[in-house]
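FYI - complex with 5-O-phosphono-beta-D-ribofuranosylamine, inputs then prediction.
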Amino acid sequence: LKLAVLISGGGSNLKALLDAAADPQFPARIVCVGSDTDAPGLAHAEAAGVPTFVVRPGDSDSREEWGQVLAAAIQEHGVGTGPEPGLVVSAGLMRILPAGFVREFSPHLINTHPALLPLYPGAHAVRDALAAGATETGVTVHIIDEGVDTGPVLRQAAVEVREHDSEEELHERIKRLERPLLVETVREIALGELDLAGLASR
Ligand code: GRF
């Protein structure tokens, strides 16, 4: 299974996928990594010899156009929507993917989110859980649909919130579960153990 991974930040989830894919037994390989910015995490891909690209929203006249340019870059790198669809993995992409992009790739399009959706959707999930006084939160891997963090849930894992957790401490505790969860979810998809089309059609 060919993967296109999209990031905006440090890319520790990307790094976990790169490390997993370094094992020839792993049933998926990362053929490209894209970002909306000069994400530090792109260095992980470069170190692994994986092609990277940056598609800046500012270079397009609209969100939809940005989505079209991003989709073209992904497909140029071999992650297609044809008979042998690849998989687009949003792993810390801090952008809402436009409807046209989602329609083009979904259901072969997943996201990882640092909360137990439907709790705490949006860009500040960890901060929101802390602000709400949650004693538990977690991570969700889901199919991306045209909503924000609303697609069918694939896998979830819970994490305890500790007294006096800072946002960074809690987020790192979440990431310690998130990284292996994302790797396992990609493995299951690659092995055909998760029926994305069936889940997305419910
Ligand atoms: C992850 O926790 C992801 O769920 C959230 O952003 C974080 C990205 O972390 N959307 P990293 O860049 O993979 O370290």
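The CA atoms of residues 6 and 121 lie 19 Å apart. The first helix runs from residue 12 to 21.
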